[in-house]
TrEMBL record:
It holds the Pfam family SBP_bac_1. One of its GO terms (biological process) is maltodextrin transmembrane transport. Belongs to the bacterial solute-binding protein 1 family. InterPro entries: SBP. One of its GO terms (cellular component) is ATP-binding cassette (ABC) transporter complex, substrate-binding subunit-containing. One of its GO terms (molecular function) is maltose binding. Residues 1-20 form the signal peptide. Keywords: Signal, Transport. It comes from Nonomuraea solani. It comes from the Bacteria. This is Arabinogalactan oligomer / maltooligosaccharide transport system substrate-binding protein.
Amino acid sequence: MRRLLPSAAVVAAFTLTVSACGGGGGEPAAPAASVSDPSKISGEVTWWDTTRPDSEGPTFQALIKEFETKYPQIKVKYVNVPSDQAQNQFQTAAQAGSGAPDVIRSEVAWTSQFASLGYLQPLDGSRAVDKPEDFLPGPLSSTKYNGKTYAVPQVTDTLALIYNKRLLKEAGHEEPPKTIPELKQAALDVKAKTGVAGLALNVDSYFLLPFMYGEGGDLLDVANKKIVVNSPANVKAIETVSDLITSGAAPKPATTESYANAMTALKEGKAAMIYNGPWALSEIYQGKEFKDKKNLGIAPVPAGSVKAAAPTGGWNLAIYAGSKNIPAAYEFVRFMTTPEAQAKIAKEISLLPTRTSAYENPDVKGNADVAVFQPIMDTAVPRPWIPEGGQLFQPLLEGYQSLVGGESAPADVLKKVDEQYRGIMKDWS
């Protein structure tokens, strides 16, 4: 489940100096790059995984068994931490200097934040980073902070329009909508002709970004250190979302649990379309509507007046700077990000590889869902890989909730978000 919102505790961490952290300041441990026989390395690696335990977890646990077979003296303690809790829990444990895992599956927006606080082990020159030239530039860029590498890309993703082919066809649409006006009309037709919701919205700031990008908007202009969230383009985008709700194209969503609600509606045939990413597919296929996988459609998000684009997401593997098992953690991260591991993940649960070579693997080529998402990734918009990046979502979420709740007009939403951003990015114009 995709949740990117930092808690108040995480935001507060930015007021602390790096020297206050319990991770040892992120200084390199004893080098392990020259190990003559890596299979002889011993230790126990605690890994915090953030995947869904029911639909994704089994694939990762199977990889752990393969790793332990290859490295018989290393044991992996697998801990599944919900993705909407992992950021706060890791920050709290790292700051306290106890209870943090050796390895964390870090959302791409968290990596630079944790690195800036000294919580992550630098990886340049270590065995954790194998053939960096093989990684896609976008995912690889999310692992850097101040010119150093602090993580290894595991999977990448973006958002797409995911739809029920049967319901769209019953509403008279053989093809998915390509533009926002077409999206609105298709949703209204589904409602009129089938009696179910046309589009189920997710009240989450990440899911607002395709509408903003579609109008040519963004949150920040990083190159010029400018806050651009309160722009005419973004006002138009928020007005578009508001119109989808008021027109009936999308039923008014709840301000909480809307992700789960939208997923349930799609799986049960109570909604024809949602925005979501490849991480959701393994769960969607468990729904009664998609026992026949051919009924599921995947298409680029509909274009706004400027373009069709969605945010770049994904997950990295990072090592806690205070780990007592650095050499073993290097080997674990290396193994879990090999082309072979990524191919297994892509084959079984359709998560997108971050290595170029993995896409040449027959198991990856044979996954139709990956094949659909791969060109969509080419239009994905990189997010700002800055320490404050993880703080940008809470103000936007609160604005989205106030819009849905009828408390704020689109322009007022963005005005307030802009004010909150200026409290975060204090030296930005």
